[in-house]
């Protein structure tokens, strides 16, 4: 589902001009007095919010895959390289939870990146049981370019929202996520 479809879904909850009662020429209502809005149309249940969030998430995943076309990276590989770019070298078992990959999936993805020469995997100097993953110069060059292009495209996509709407959305999503995390633990 694309952003336009989500916007149409969101807009469908707003009354259209055709749905608003027409003012008659003989109406005695003051111009300042408006009919009460349908309270149901203004309410968004937790379930509706969750559904919109899930649909938006899947649309954004598709958008991300589109922004990665031509980079040779899959979405999970992109997330790993991006984490290493912004957080620095990390143990394999630390990367997985940061990029939402299971221990088995992170190992396979790191192996793919290792074979391509984009990362190194070495034993930790503090604990030989720990394997630390870092970017190679080729990996850093690739993720620098791919991330910069991805960030530009996401920033352009976010222009559908005003800066105020972005701040409100970020605050609201953080609160919603923290509440879910708190209640699930």
Give a written overview of the molecule.
This protein is mostly helical. It has 8 helices and 3 strands; from the N terminus they run ααααβααββαα. The protein has a 3-stranded antiparallel sheet. β2 and β3 (about 130-135) form a beta hairpin. α4 crosses α7 (about 135-155) and α5 (about 90-100) crosses α6. The longest helix has 23 residues, at about 45-70. The radius of gyration is 23 Å and the shape is globular. The model is unreliable at about 1-30 (pLDDT under 50).
Structure summarized in a few sentences:
This protein has helices at 3-12, 39-42, 46-68, 75-87, 92-98, 103-115, 137-157, 163-184, and strands at 90-91, 119-123, 131-135.
H/E series, N to C?
HHHHEHHEEHH
Mean of residue pLDDT values: 83
Strand content: 5-15%
With helices defined by DSSP (H or I, 4 residues minimum), what is the helix count?
8
Oligomerization category of the chains in this entry: single chain
Biggest β-sheet: strands ordered side by side in the sheet: 1-3-2
Radius of gyration: 23 Å
Give unreliable regions as ranges.
1-30
Major sheet characteristics: 3 strands, antiparallel
- Separation of the first and last Cα atoms: 31 Å
Report the structural category. mainly alpha
Q: What overall form do the CA principal axes indicate?
A: globular
Q: What share of the residues lie within helices?
A: 55-70%
């Amino acid at each position: 589902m694309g952003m336009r479809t989500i916007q149409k879904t969101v807009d469908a909850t707003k009354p259209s001009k055709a749905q608003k009662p027409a003012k008659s020429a003989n109406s005695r209502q003051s111009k300042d007095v408006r009919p009460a809005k349908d309270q149901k149309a203004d309410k968004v249940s937790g379930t509706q919010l969750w559904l919109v969030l899930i649909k938006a998430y899947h649309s954004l995943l598709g958008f991300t895959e589109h922004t990665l076309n031509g980079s040779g990276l899959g979405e999970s590989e992109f997330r790993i390289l991006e984490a290493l770019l912004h957080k620095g070298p990390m143990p394999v078992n630390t990367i997985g939870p940061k990029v939402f990959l299971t221990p088995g999936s992170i190992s396979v993805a790191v192996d793919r990146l290792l074979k391509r020469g984009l990362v190194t995997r070495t034993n930790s100097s503090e604990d030989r049981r720990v394997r630390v993953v870092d970017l190679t110069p080729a990996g850093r060059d690739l993720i620098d370019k791919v991330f910069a292009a991805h960030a530009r495209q996401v920033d352009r996509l976010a222009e559908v929202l005003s800066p105020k709407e972005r701040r409100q959305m970020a605050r609201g999503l953080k609160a919603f996520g923290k509440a879910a995390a708190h209640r699930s633990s």
